[in-house]
Model the fold of this input.
Amino acid sequence: MLEIDLGAVAANWRLLDAMHQGETAAVLKADAYGLGAAQVAPVLAGAGCRLFFAAHLAEAVSLRAVLPEARIAVLNGLVPHAAADFVAHDIIPVLGSLQDVVLWHAEARGLGRVLAAFLHLETGMNRLGLTAAELTALREDTSLLEGVAVELVMTHLLAADVPEDAANTRQLALFDEVARQFPGARRSLANSSGIFLGAEFQADIVRPGAALYGINPTPARKNPMHGVVRLSAPILQIHEIPAGESVGYSGIWRPKRPSRIATLGVGYADGYHRILTNRATAYFDDTPVPLVGRVSMDLTTFDVTDVPANPGDMLELLGPRHGPDALAAEAQTNGYEILTSLGRRYQRRYIGA
Ligand SMILES: *Cc1c(COP(=O)(O)O)cnc(C)c1O
Done:
């Protein structure tokens, strides 16, 4: 059972919104980090959010169905032949290259209209964004942006979760410099962690994703966000095995004492990654129980020798005691990948809306 607390998502948005003067957007790419954009988006709109970011056009079009009034932007920019669809669904592209600008300008000219756009400016990530050379080209040929209303210029921080990383101030200084080319545009730098770097980074608009969904934006400190997900599964069977037997594929785990092994119907096909083999922790009430043996596709085994668990009892895989960041540490990844991997087979329950 995957329980998603939409009230906590809204509370997280309000908490971030209260931290600064400007506008708080919301990033809903990858189906709202795996939690369900169709459910999350209206709740955020209800909390006061007016600007939403998706990664792909198809995500934005799905969002449009549940957000008829909101502004929706696509972080990954335009692809050839997509401009008409952006216009048809009233989606704003984040133009991240000269090629994007050329395509959007051509669309505007063809329609005889002015089209809104956001511009992504390169400051160090080197993935998306107009480079210094491309900005020079735009300065030298102002006709390239005719018909394009640049409402927002943005960049993306590469190490916002590490406040002392010198890349943050370097990117801020470079952004201040290149953004001057667009004096009429609002400015945005901060993802979730960026909001916690202070007012200069908050600028006019902040773009949190992860923190809305309960991931800690300040990894070196206590998580200021409300937990959003709770994942639990019932024990299918308990096997009592003697010392020296093995559990699961390849027999890689053998107990040193007589043990009780609880089997859950959750596996790597559900995003409960195989790397969690012999590493993860679940909770029986308040007591941690270790995952033992290999994670298989549809099944996982836990050592419940020290707790009074019975078949049908629930073990908690994600929850207040053990959130996405904690499971991520066991899986050698980040909370983002834990959430976006959450499987489609879980029964989902939305609460708090
Ligand atoms: C994903 C993304 C965000 C949100 O980042 P979080 O760390 O999840 O808050 C903001 N801006 C851009 C450009 C992104 O790609």
